[in-house]
Amino acid sequence: AEREKGANLKEEVAALRRKLLTSENARRKLHNELQELKGNVRVFVRVRPEGGDGQRTVVEVDDDLGTVGVPCRGEFHPFNFDRTFSPRATQDDLFAEVSAYVQSALDGFNVSLFAYGQTGSGKTHTMFGQKSDPGLIPRAIDQILLTVEQESANGWSYQMHASFIEIYNEQVRDLLCSSTEEEGKKHQITQGENGRNDVTGREHC
Known about the structure:
- The protein is of the alpha+beta class.
- It has five helices and eleven strands, in the order H-E-E-E-E-E-H-H-E-E-H-E-E-H-E-E.
- A hairpin with a 2-residue loop joins strand 3 and strand 4 (75-80).
- The radius of gyration is 23 Å and the shape is extended.
- Keywords: ATP-binding, Coiled coil, Microtubule, Motor protein, Nucleotide-binding.
């Protein structure tokens, strides 16, 4: 009787795991179909606040309409984007919009996110932030580690590798290397047989 009871429990556990995996696969499919409906390429604009006394914002942002208005020669020119963030937007506001991409990466899809703008426009603040107010990169890492921990308890397994590079003045720099280790190294961006881009000689962690 005890043996039969144990066998029944094993069957129930196996059935529940199959059901969980099925529902998780359905969630992944629906989540990424939703992302595709929103658009595979999206452009967000974040307007930084005034940097000091005597400075003022010269554009008008409408977060509801997703427009940035620029006055020029007495006329007002609105530009439309997928999403806009006014100077009042917080790091939390940005990551709430971006976290769906992190989930897509965990679901096995290729995701690329970059900040573009002139010097002093706030790229580093948006991507890195500060210890007291982290940006997108540390928040994304936290989300990845938390999700892996949660999903591991549900029977999923993940293998993660990370590299950290910078392209500055047309030079590729490996930020996981110390300055002495990096000195004299030449990195190149190559494309493998699988079509994926890679950087030669980079460190992994």
